[in-house]
Automatic annotation (TrEMBL):
Superkingdom, taxonomy of origin: Eukaryota
Sample GO molecular function, one term: methyltransferase activity
Keyword Endoplasmic reticulum attributed: no
Polar residues: bias regions: 17-44
Protein name: Methyltransferase LAE1
Biological process according to GO: methylation
Residues passing through the membrane, by range: none
Protein's UniProt keywords contain Transferase: yes
Organism of this sequence: Hyphodiscus hymeniophilus
Extent of Low complexity compositional bias: 97-112
Keywords: Methyltransferase, Transferase
InterPro entries: SAM-dependent_MTases_sf
Region (Disordered): 1-51, 76-112
PANTHER family: ABC TRANSMEMBRANE TYPE-1 DOMAIN-CONTAINING PROTEIN-RELATED (PTHR43591:SF10), METHYLTRANSFERASE (PTHR43591)
Length: 420
């Protein structure tokens, strides 16, 4: 373990409670670390997706089958559960050498100015580069971020899809948030140096010795040398980045030749494969307002659909996309997807006000009272059990070309992924 240092890094650890399927989810975590490799001294208590030591052979086989079916259905069509399980579970759910090159050093450790926060309409926002990110960073939002992590890992069954090999050296997590992904990557790859960067200093204060955090803006210039990182990762960042092409070029410059870039982004607009969600459903209207409000603030919330093409235009090769459908609610028959849907609906309902306040008051110029009235209708609509809605998660991997390699002859796709 390491203590906080003076090299513009924030050290961390976070202790989280496990997941109880019989309760409304509260700060759940799931890790996919190989039990033989998870030997970090971090005080975190990881909760594995499959707790092999507690299951019989038959139970483990059944769980493995359920997990495999969840991954398969999430990428194709999810079976609907119209029986008692859906009704019973529905009742549970009711209720960034990285840095900046300016003289004033926009990269910084936990100075008093960075620890300051801005407050608006009852929410707390980052003070560093104030207004860059239009969503709050208070404790409830941090809990939502950790629940997103549990949902993602249970849905995907892994932390990453890019083929990193056994010993990547330098990993960058852009928009690290609470740092939970970076911590688990540090546990999974103990020989790697993992750097997490975010505008908000909300990470824990102790970390595995190979994990560091920095307060910075990834859209500012980076100080780490070119060709430095083996792997650069971003997740849930589409609502924050204003100039994706510029960021793509910067990522390409700072990856080693042959290094990988991976984005895991949900397109936040509900879809429905069986026609059960009408076009004027309040949840659909809600996300249309968010997209419009963010557009007024210079953020393209539909950028998820354009990221693969942007990677190619920036110069990446072997660009591949894998799409998972994230259910909203407990309507799936598969037990893993049912729990994922419960997590995701809880995340969306808990995030109604934090997500809407910035885009709708700053972007659309609504009064806060008008937003509150509208959100009451949306909150109720999320509980419509007859709606079988989902949102697509795009997992996009791309590689920096190596000199002397002919990529036109043969492309390499990470396991289970196809050229997009």
């Amino acid at each position: 373990m390491t203590s906080p240092s003076n090299d513009s890094a924030i050290s961390i650890a976070r202790t989280l409670a496990g997941t109880n399927p019989g309760k409304q989810p509260s700060r759940p975590t799931s890790t996919i670390n190989d039990p033989q490799r998870s030997k970090s001294n971090s005080p975190r208590t990881p909760v594995h997706i499959s707790q092999h030591h507690e299951l019989s052979v038959a139970e483990q086989a059944a769980l493995d089958l359920e997990n495999s079916a969840a991954v398969e259905q999430a990428q194709n069509e999810i079976d609907i559960d119209s029986g008692a399980d859906a009704r019973s579970m529905s009742s549970l759910g009711s209720e960034s050498g990285y840095g900046s090159d300016t003289q004033g050093s926009s990269s910084t450790s936990l100075s008093s100015s960075v620890r300051d926060y801005a407050f608006e309409h009852g929410h707390r926002y980052h003070k560093f580069r104030e207004g860059t990110y239009n969503f709050p960073n208070e404790e409830s939002e941090q809990e939502r971020e950790d629940m997103k992590h549990a949902m993602m890992v249970n849905l995907c069954q892994k932390l990453h899809f890019a083929p990193l090999g056994d010993n990547p050296q330098h990993i960058l997590d852009m928009g690290t948030g609470t740092g939970i992904w970076a911590i688990e990557m540090g546990d999974l790859y103990p020989g790697a140096n993992v750097l997490g960067v975010d505008l908000s200093p909300i990470q824990p204060e102790w970390v595995p010795p190979n994990v560091r955090f920095m307060v910075d803006d990834v859209e500012s210039p980076w100080l780490r040398p070119r060709n430095h990182f083996d792997y650069i990762h971003g997740r849930h960042t589409v609502m924050a980045i204003r100039d994706w092409p510029k960021l793509m070029r910067r990522v390409l410059d700072h990856l080693k030749p042959g290094g990988w870039f991976e984005l895991q982004e949900i397109h936040h607009y509900p879809q429905c494969h069986d026609g059960s969600m009408p076009p004027d459903h309040p949840v659909t209207q809600y996300w249309a307002y968010i997209i419009e409000g963010l557009a007024q603030l210079g953020v393209n919330f539909n950028a998820t659909l354009l990221l693969a093409d942007m990677m190619r235009e920036a110069g990446f090769v072997n660009v591949t996309t894998r799409i998972f459908h994230v259910p909203i609610g407990v309507w799936p028959r598969n037990k893993v997807l049912k729990m994922v849907g419960l997590y995701w609906r809880t995340i969306l309902i808990d995030g109604l006000d934090p997500i809407a306040t910035g885009p709708m008051t700053r972007g659309l110029k609504w009064k806060k009272e008008e937003v509150d009235v509208w959100l009451a209708h949306v909150r109720k609509a999320y509980m419509d059990s007859w709606v079988h809605a989902h949102m697509p998660l795009h997992v996009i991997c791309a590689q920096k070309p190596e000199a002397g390699v002919d990529y036109s002859a043969e492309s390499y796709a990470p396991e289970g992924m196809a050229d997009s």
